[in-house]
Amino acid sequence: MAPQLHQRPPFRAEHLGSLLRPNELLDTKLAFEAGKIPESQLTAVEDKEVKDIVATQKKLGYAAISDGEYRRHMFWGTFFPGLDGFEEVNNVDVDDFRPYAPDIAAFLEAGHKPGESVICTGKIKHVGSTYIDQFKYLASQVPAEEVGNLKITLAAPNWYHLRYREGKAYPKSVYTNDEDYFGDIAKAYQAELKILYDAGCRNVQFDDPNLAYFCSEKFLNGFKEDPLNVYTADDMFEKYIKQYNDCFVNLPADMHVGVHLCRGNFVGSRHFSEGGYDRIAIKLFQELNVHTYYLEYDTPRAGGFEPLKFLPTHKNVILGVVTSKFATLEDKEEMKNRVIDAAKFIAEGNNISLDAALNQVGVSPQCGFASHREGNAIDWDGMINKLKLVRDIANDIWPNQA
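-> structure tokens emitted (402 positions)
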């Protein structure tokens, strides 16, 4: 049987999970970290703010509701620190990092040593979900029939591999090669996805800047020139694709998984890398076993729509044509035309009609509004206006569709 298009989720109007934190929430987190209030007080404020942001999303007409990542400091959350075999450390030797990895390079160019990190110190094992209670609270805020629409975001399985130079991601005394290391990470994700599924979760989005780094000539040149590397960048990209697919072994048929590719979203709304999807499109769209791609397309740094010719007919693409980094509103008609232009390439690549291609498409902001808790260079009203614009674009192109 040919693979089927999985929809609802995703939806015609999407956002990428992270939303601006209200000041009360930020202040309360700081007070807790300073030891001024008990954790129970922080949890109470988080609960209240999650409840409010759920109501806000429903009012704006979004079905794939998230908790705004309100309980996280950074978008990647607590998955890796929650595993046996990983430890959070504050002083990693700067020479252990790949200096050409775009996010690491940005820190170094600004004169900052990369801060805290998570490193592998022993055999990796899943010992309980750090997200399950968060998901259950989110689920309690919507009717039972809407729980399957809720979105939870997870860190990329390669997140703590690419940032480290060859031989530094794990002790050789623990793992003799990448395959064994990746294999245990995949098993950990399999366990996490099952726990979430059993709690009613049906909609997972992996946030992965690393895959987009393989579009960057600057990164690729650095990778090629690094004498420690034993693989080419193409080899490494293929290993990451396989790692993802191994995470999805035994994935239930009714569980939707997507991947968001981003070129950086940090303090001051800065990005880290540039380059179109052309170089990775075939492997990304045809070999990675996800249902949906959430792609950054708000500026020329992400290239053109031509790579979408390689998107198969059983997969979706959510076009991030609206920026989340700044408040200036895009022109709605111009954005609608861009969506149509993108769909034309899907139609051309698959020899299908434009209407059929549009059925594989949705629209979103290009990234989250607060990948780090302090948020982008945009205020609350700016965020709401962006979300309204995305919903309006979707309503015009796909009337009466969630």
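The chain has one domain: 23-397.
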